[in-house]
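Re: the request from the purification team.
They wanted to know what the chain is likely to look like in 3D before they choose a buffer screen. I agreed to run a prediction and write the result into the notebook, where they can find it.
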Amino acid sequence: MNTIKTGDIVGHWNWGEGHVLNAVPTQAEVPEEWQHDWQSVVLVQFPEWNNACMWVLDVDLDVITAA
């Protein structure tokens, strides 16, 4: 079960600290390459990477500050 929530501040092993924008996407919201596993990804914005927004696996995230 996904414990990451929209609004959480999270850490990613490669991308660093980010802000969760969508923790419970629908299958239609995720890119085609994630649609087979859409319940395992969340959309995160990473300020250190020019505010890039990326879909990442929830298991690769650690909650720093809960929403």
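For the purification team: The beta strands are 9-12, 16-22, 41-46, 52-57, 61-65.
Please add any questions underneath this entry.
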